[in-house]
Amino acid sequence: VNIDGKAYRTIWLGADGWSVEIIDQTKLPHELAFATLKTAEDAGRAILTMQVRGAPLIGAMAAYGVCLALRQDGSDEALDQAIATLAKQRPTAVNLRWALEEMRAAVRNLPRDKRLSAAYQRAAEIADADVLTNRAIGVHGAKLIEAMAARKRPGERVNVLTHCNAGWLACVDRGTALSPIYEAYDGGTALHVWVDETRPRNQGASLTAFELGAHGVPYTVIVDNAGGHLMQQGLVDMCIVGADRVAANGDVANKIGTYLKALAAKDNGVPFYVAMPHSTIDWTIAVGKDIPIEERSAEEVLTMSGRSKDGKVVQVEIAAPGSPARNDAFDVTPARLITGLITERGVCQASRDGLRSLYPERG
Amino acid sequence: VNIDGKAYRTIWLGADGWSVEIIDQTKLPHELAFATLKTAEDAGRAILTMQVRGAPLIGAMAAYGVCLALRQDGSDEALDQAIATLAKQRPTAVNLRWALEEMRAAVRNLPRDKRLSAAYQRAAEIADADVLTNRAIGVHGAKLIEAMAARKRPGERVNVLTHCNAGWLACVDRGTALSPIYEAYDGGTALHVWVDETRPRNQGASLTAFELGAHGVPYTVIVDNAGGHLMQQGLVDMCIVGADRVAANGDVANKIGTYLKALAAKDNGVPFYVAMPHSTIDWTIAVGKDIPIEERSAEEVLTMSGRSKDGKVVQVEIAAPGSPARNDAFDVTPARLITGLITERGVCQASRDGLRSLYPERG
Fold it and tell me: Which residues of A11-44 are buried (b: 16+ CB within 10 A; e: fewer)?
């Protein structure tokens, strides 16, 4: 994805060929800052403090963190120690542990002098695999946007609504829900994105708005309350959201509020798509209501951070003092409300049969 | 409604019998401050700066503003001047103009020495009429909450979800959507209120949370995204919201996001009620889609005000710099999603026939 016309990933190797550079996402959206990581400690801190966030990106960061550790000490003990420390930084991130085990397998049986180059090679493969997966999602999803564009009159744009940030910034490049948007936009399709603010953490207004704007995609920020009204007014042609977990029957757990938008889409005949890689499908969970929903701190609801007039980023209390709050992070959108699932293998119905048609090996 | 156990209205006469005291709502929810108004200019400023807000309260404030003007000068010229000036403070507020014409009619044909007492009497009637209307809404609506409570097991509370602020602070006392809640709570019904934050202006998290908390009603603030999930989990027994305008067929225009909650209520079998006085019904508008929807400034979406760590109330930018935003203030909830309308005359179906049954004189 581009920033002011120059292509960026969220993580890449420095000019020295070994240090790791990242976009420091804790500074977004108010400042575009970069960080250079030279040690495993730097990598661990980047994960812990959410300089990098999003499951695929955390995985790639951890992989490069192992590389940096091996540069310091190539012993088995140091490798075990680095993997254990990196794994602790975000205890619930499945991709983090997966990437670390991949790195362990890649170097374990090699002599010390071969380990470093093998590690960098495997880390690059992990990063590149994410980009390829997301590009494939983009190609399949862009066809849906382009089909919608073909029905528009000259001068009309396709209006896509998205919720939260399932974009480039959560991945190594392109994103999941936003990948079809980038693909269609880069291919010349006239489109415009309605960006749900996505309270309580505002990933839409901050991250999605930032990355669409940086790449040049036309967008408008709206509050989470507005999507239904816009659909009633005929101002939304389709919805594309990401997923945190997909059950085997096609029910989708995603950022809180996704279910409300899916209801409005159904009520107004607006197609509602969920874009995600196969790794998001949890074949062990039969139906959505069995997906555990994380409850997060009340503080996220009761406060908001932003940039004050003097340019400083501050946190402010927004609710009546002493208010209790509840903060469920996700909700479950039933498969019956979902028009289709967009994966790296194509588009399928949100159903057991639909998923089986794309992933027969899991059938 | 009580604040720390002491009964308050939002507007009342001072101990001197003529000055007007109000709760300064610009300081809420972070500070409970009062203001004493002694001139028509004070009253105009209170309306303009939103020290008082909410259609019924603005009407009562304007009525007392005419009293204060007459104290200064009882002439016809001064009366006309005061009414013209007060009317300009909020150009679209229908109640404001209605109250001012009521005041003009009450004093116009009286000799100057009778005008002041007649004015104070009419202003008190306008304020009291609002309280009586709201109390009647409360009594009718409380029966619905009590019926729900009767189906609960011992120790269980009725969970009511509300959106925006249709409470005491928008009226002289009790409110519309919140009046049934106060009535049921004061009558000993065990209940708990889910308070939608209500972006972009946060009237839920600030005003509704403040007034429920002050009166002692148990509540929890949630983001606007959360209500659907809570309904799926069986944690919402009923919804009660206010209305900005009701069409003759029972369609309801209310704060943006109301429609999404009504969809979720329907999808989960949760009763969805709208509480409003008859003055909110617009008999000249046949169906909801003919209700004009105000579009407000993008700044309300892109910024948020709150209290910083040093205790000052500041405004912060929350979106990616340079983001465009769209800000429709209301949406229309179709009558098919509404279980019933709660008015001062009782509860009716949200339909032309339902409204006719309560207001046969308009049939």
Answer: bbbeeeeebbbbbbbeebbbeeeebebebbbbbb
